[in-house]
């Protein structure tokens, strides 16, 4: 699956580098409609400052986006309760992505899966490679919350396994080190988590060219790839990405 990502801040799509230095990329509803026309398999909408600003996800923007697309829509950012999950699903989302709240309130994963089905509950993991002087975690990647602002001390691989055990039906995995760098996904991280869990893993963070997408499927063993910069700024179209991957024997719906 090829999944464009809309990181939204203040009602506009933005894109940064390693979660900082954000620049404007357009109107979320307009971009959503474009990606739907181009053949995106799914769409991810992330209100990237909702958790750090302690506010709710922008329901109105989600509704505008959902009206533009006929492909599955995942919404994340600021979802803290079952009521928030229900509100997003009622606004047009097919799935919700939870990150900070999943760590703060793990029961939210289980309760969401029980009420709406595991297929609706995506746990997003923002992970950064351990730097020299940090003795944890054992896997070599630490989980961060609040849009990459707060370290948790959690081992990314172990947290992914626990999240799936609690009921998550999918993992959205972002490498903070590679995000926006355009140098390729963290294949080692992606592969480690793909091998550790029995549910689909979406690779995120680092796509700069079409070969990087191919590498995520092969070297990273991902089930789907999420990308923003290469699509938002016109480097490639989704059709170009799909045709390239199909030509290299990656099964694609074209």
Automatic annotation (TrEMBL):
Main location: cytoplasm
GO biological process, one term: L-histidine biosynthetic process
Keywords, sorted A to Z: Amino-acid biosynthesis, Cytoplasm, Histidine biosynthesis, Lyase
UniProt keyword Amino-acid biosynthesis, yes or no: yes
Primary enzyme class: lyase
UniProt cross-references to Gene3D superfamilies, sorted A to Z: Aldolase class I (3.20.20.70)
Location of the protein in the cell: Cytoplasm
Catalytic reaction(s) noted: 5-[(5-phospho-1-deoxy-D-ribulos-1-ylimino)methylamino]-1-(5-phospho-beta-D-ribosyl)imidazole-4-carboxamide + L-glutamine = D-erythro-1-(imidazol-4-yl)glycerol 3-phosphate + 5-amino-1-(5-phospho-beta-D-ribosyl)imidazole-4-carboxamide + L-glutamate + H(+)
UniProt-listed Pfam families: His_biosynth
Record GO terms (molecular function): imidazoleglycerol-phosphate synthase activity; lyase activity
InterPro entries the UniProt entry points to: Aldolase_TIM, His_biosynth, HisF, IGPS_HisA/HisF, RibuloseP-bd_barrel
Assigned EC number: 4.3.2.10
GO cellular component, one term: cytoplasm
Associated pathway: Amino-acid biosynthesis; L-histidine biosynthesis; L-histidine from 5-phospho-alpha-D-ribose 1-diphosphate: step 5/9
Keyword Amino-acid biosynthesis tagged: yes
Functional description taken from the UniProt entry: IGPS catalyzes the conversion of PRFAR and glutamine to IGP, AICAR and glutamate. The HisF subunit catalyzes the cyclization activity that produces IGP and AICAR from PRFAR using the ammonia provided by the HisH subunit.
PANTHER family assigned: IMIDAZOLE GLYCEROL PHOSPHATE SYNTHASE HISHF, IMIDAZOLE GLYCEROL PHOSPHATE SYNTHASE SUBUNIT HISF/H IGP SYNTHASE SUBUNIT HISF/H
Subunit structure comment from the entry: Heterodimer of HisH and HisF.
Family per similarity comment: Belongs to the HisA/HisF family.
Record protein name field: imidazole glycerol-phosphate synthase
Species in which this protein is naturally found: Geodia barretti (Barrett's horny sponge)
Classification of source organism: Eukaryota, Metazoa, Porifera, Demospongiae, Heteroscleromorpha
